[in-house]
Amino acid sequence: MTVAHLKIDLDGFLFIIASSMPYTSYSYQYLFVAIFAVFAVIFAMTPLVLAWFLAPKKPSETKKAPYECGLASQGDSWIQYHVQFYIFALIFLLFDVEIVFIYPWAVAFQKLGLFAFVEMIIFIAILAFGLFYAWRKQMLKWD
Amino acid sequence: MIFDPVFIRLKALFLDLCARFFPEWVVMLASIVISAVVILVMGPVIMMYLTLLERKLLGRIQNRYGPNRVGIWGLLQPVADGIKMFIKEDIVPAHADKIIHLLAPVVTVVPSLMVFLVVPFGNGMTAVNLNIGILYFVAISSITTIPIFMGSWASRNKFSVLGGMRAAAQMISYEAPMTLAIVPVIMASQTLATATIVESQGGGFGMNWFIFTPWGLLGFIIYFFCAIAECNRPPFDLPEAESELIAGFHTEYSGMKFALFYMAEYMNAFTLSAIAVTLFLGGWQGPFLPSWIWFFGKTFLLVCVMIWFRGTFLRFRVDHLMGFAWKFLLPLSLINILIAGLWFLTPAIAAWALTAGLVVASFFVFVKLNKTFVPEKRTYVLAD
After folding, report:
1. Is B68 helix (H, G, I), strand (E, B) or coil?
2. Best mutation target, B251, B258, B334, to test chain A (most A CBs within 10 A)
3. Hey, what domains does chain A have and what are their CATH numbers?
4. CB within 10 Å: which end of chain A, N or C, has fewer?
5. Measured between beta carbons, which residues in chain A are less than 8 angstroms from residue B31?
């Protein structure tokens, strides 16, 4: 974590082996992620700004109309949609929360052994029953 | 292997030079900026040449040449496309929510770039070897649902909103089996760090890759299908089905904003394949050649499979698409966790027989359960 890690081996060859790359502390890693996020936003904005200067701007009423295959638009498109989408989102939430519990278990699985495995089988079985119930109730049927 | 750590050595050499003249925090910042700039250059370049590769391969599949006019073999075609995108007029519909319409392409590019941070491009070539690498990947890549929905809703166009609704439903549906398909790999390697997952697949002449186990094969297949669905590529391109929804969620996007959506889609295709290689195909492990050549070779092979799927498969029907995720992939991925557990708790030969048997049995059970309901054969009395 210090500059000493980076010193070139003066014996001739550079032995900076992959796994011992310098800077592996948390602060460095998350600083990297934060700085990269800023870079990525700038990177995404730049072409839009450039295009603002380069692209022609000749708006007209017809161009600004919503595209509906050339016909005049009928009614608003911000309307209520089918409840089906909401039900799928609910079932998704169930499994997403389940995944939050499964990931830490998976990391520690080989240390925990059989008992934790049986516990996880019971946990998954309860949720699989939920999925089975939704399936039988025709909630997974798209119409 | 002289060429293997060439990039790492170059960076270390430069940092060492910095360390002689500047204080430590400058060296640290330099290290961050170098890696960040490399990724920010690499991502778009990969995206540009993926578009060319896709058009070339699709051309060959359809018995034509593909782009070959701009530069040798059409190699400058992506540059020409980029210039065209810059000088196209940006049309925003009159009633659209203009701020969100502008924000959506930006929000879609950022996560697809940020996923590159945890991709292990070679031995020691992970930009940030986070110890929660896979969790980071899952979390960041799931953001891509939101900008697509933002863009579609802000456009205030019927095709867009319908496409966005479908995209949201499809992407959250395929996210659940995708994240569950990764779990067996974590169980085997006991870590979430991407570089360590690759290292745990080393040795054994490539036979330690996780794809060469029953749970690994099943997991890879589930993961790969879900990856194609996550980046809305054919045959899962319902959100932008040209023949029914014009262009789906990006109907009202033109010029650079459209290009950003396009860029994010291709970078996602690349990173999802790259993570598939990391998890199941041994990452950068391989003999003779430098590790990064192995990694890019395997990744581009998977991308070519995606393009091949696009060239040959028909689009799904919406109900089949949702059914495939919830009634087939999701139960199989849950069972796959149990199969992986049995693999580690039973001795070697028994484990092979037991898990392989269970994989095949569960596969056929769910094929059977998903059989479409065929009504009784109709008899036409008067016709005879």
Report:
1. coil
2. B334
3. 3-136 (1.20.58.1610)
4. C
5. 22-23
